[in-house]
Write a structure and sequence with these properties.
The chain is an alpha+beta fold. The protein folds into four domains: 209 residues; 109 residues, 2-Layer Sandwich (Dna Ligase, domain 1); 39 residues, no CATH class; 82 residues. Helices cover 31% and strands 25% of the residues. It is built from 16 helices and 19 strands. Strand 2 and strand 3 form a beta hairpin. Helix 7 packs across helix 8 and helix 13 crosses helix 14. The longest helix has 22 residues. The chain is elongated, with a radius of gyration of 34 Å. The chain starts with a strand and ends with a strand.
């Protein structure tokens, strides 16, 4: 049978708040959405819940119930970064990791086939637990002043977590949730029997399943306390009386939803790499190379709806001089290339590199961008007036026919179906709707090339129209007959598309009047 695991970092925002304030570990603590008496409680630890405080309660009301209550605000971005850091960490233990969309700190891992890499699933689970309960990369901002060295190091304390390996998605999640924050029971459980797993999971209290406290109060009045009691209720009645959240839990317990793990897309870091042919020590050229890499980097951030907060430059130096890492921090998160290039130039000028740079890696640390920032980035387009001035300078220096464009003509022969006309102004292209297949384009040769080939009939007998470099003809399509032009001179051509060994497609024709093969162009 397929095996899966659930990793539960219980009440992750609450743990992050306690990491910021280590002395609060043994006192009632809540996370609120606003640091004011009207702030709403979002998370509450066991000590706070034991005092009658529950999620959704105003901070002033909660404080009246427990005078020792401690409260704080954890930014949503902080929680998101911690979840992403844990997701990245867990991907080193399983190729398929799913993150809960509603409960931060809940992860499902596909554990099938891992016995080939570990002695047992117990060994694998212990490795996962050791990794998760260690420090994660999304660290809080260290206190500025007034903190001793010992107080600062205690901020980086371990997280509480539980790992449950079993067979059913809901069962392993239920058992993992029962190992809540501060729970003294075994944090690692590995089930070898699906029946044992189901029996233990159905004894779990509904309050441990993160169900709405008001719903739990109502169900307890009806004698519905455990997951097993909840399963005996009719599904239609659960949705009508207790809402969609309770109905989804009932559906999951009834195994209406599949137990397989669906991988959550991993968010890759926004990076760009510049490789120099020779060690580069010139500051101007180095800055220009960084500017070239900044455009796609900022484009990636703009598509994500983010702005650059910190730009990290990792410069690998030549001649065994190691590497240098420096950071560029704009005053506010931005998508302005000009500002970042100026700051980068100043940073590189102050770095005084001991050798030339062979590789430069740009990594962006980003935050959510405002609508104004995204609008400025998207509005940055082509300056048509500047392009017109550039064309005027070219015509003045090289002549009026120096800048031309292809214009379609109504003609019979392919080479007469377009002409080159002077370009006086630049216009933005009209983007046509994209089709599923990329169109093939016939690109004309500057002039028709004479080919040596069969006298009249085209035969696939090892003919090499472009020589040995392109190889022999492997396929042919045609003929496509073109004839006419009798008011000037009669033209009779048989066009073919030739597939060559080097994967090129050659566009050729046989002129019946001159009894000769010619290459008109190639298909791209």
């Amino acid at each position: 049978m397929d095996r899966l695991a659930c990793v539960n970092v219980p009440e992750l925002p609450l743990q992050l708040l306690i990491r910021d304030n280590p002395t609060w570990r043994n006192v009632p603590v809540v996370v609120v959405d606003d640091d004011s008496p009207r702030g709403v409680t979002l998370w509450a630890n066991h000590s706070a819940r034991r005092s009658g405080i529950h999620v959704g309660m105003r901070y002033a009301v909660a404080l009246s119930l427990c005078t020792e209550l401690r409260a704080g605000v954890i930014a949503e971005r902080r929680v998101t970064e911690s979840v992403e850091a844990l997701h990245t960490l867990l991907r080193t233990f399983s190729p398929t990791v799913e993150t809960s969309a509603t409960e931060p700190g809940i992860f499902w891992l596909d554990a099938s086939g891992l016995h080939h890499l570990y002695d047992s699933l117990e060994t694998w689970g212990q490795a996962v637990l050791r990794a998760v309960t260690g420090p994660i990369s999304a660290e809080p901002t260290l206190p500025a002043s007034g903190k001793t060295k010992r107080e600062v190091t205690t901020v980086n304390q371990a997280l509480d977590a539980a790992v449950v390996v079993g067979f059913d998605r809901l069962c392993v999640c239920a058992v993992a949730k029962s190992r809540g924050l501060g729970c003294r029971t075994q944090p690692l459980v590995v089930f070898d029997d699906p029946a044992h797993e189901s029996a233990m999971a159905h004894k779990i209290s509904l309050r441990d399943m993160a169900l709405n406290p008001a719903t739990c109060d109502t169900l307890e009045k009806l004698g519905v306390i455990s997951l097993s009691d909840f399963m005996q209720l009719p599904a239609a009645g659960v949705r009508e009386r207790f809402g969609l959240e309770a109905f989804r839990l009932h559906q999951s317990a009834a195994r209406v939803h599949p137990s397989r793990v669906t991988a959550t897309p991993h968010r890759e870091a926004a990076t760009q790499t510049v490789v120099f042919d020779d060690p580069e020590s010139d500051l101007t050229r180095l800055t220009f190379a960084v500017k070239t890499a900044l455009h796609p980097l900022l484009g990636t951030l703009a598509r994500r709806g983010e702005a650059l907060a910190t730009l990290s430059l990792h410069l690998k130096l030549g001649r065994h001089h190691g590497a240098v890492t420096c950071k560029v921090c704009p005053a506010t998160p931005t998508l302005d290339v000009v500002q970042l290039v100026e700051l980068t130039h100043l940073k590189l000028e102050a770095s005084r590199l001991s050798a030339g740079v062979t590789d430069a890696v740009l990594t962006a640390e980003s935050v959510a961008a405002t609508n104004e920032q995204l609008g400025l980035f998207e509005s940055a387009g082509r300056d048509l007036e500047a392009a017109g001035r550039a064309l005027a300078r070219l015509r003045a220096e090289l002549g009026e026919d120096a800048v031309v464009r292809a214009v379609q003509k109504s003609a019979h022969l392919p080479e007469a179906q377009f002409s080159w006309e002077p370009t006086l102004a630049v216009e933005l292209p009209v983007v046509a709707p994209q089709s599923r297949q990329r169109p093939l384009v016939r690109r004309f040769f500057p002039r028709v090339e004479t080919l040596s080939g069969p006298p009249r009939a085209l035969r696939n007998d090892g003919w090499q129209p472009l020589g040995t470099s392109a190889g022999a003809v492997t396929g042919m399509h045609g003929p496509f007959v073109v004839s006419g032009g009798w008011w000037r001179r009669e033209v009779q051509r048989h066009y073919y598309f030739l597939e060559l060994q080097n994967q090129e497609i050659l566009w050729v024709y046989f002129d019946l009047g001159r009894r000769q093969w010619f290459a008109q162009g190639r298909v791209e």
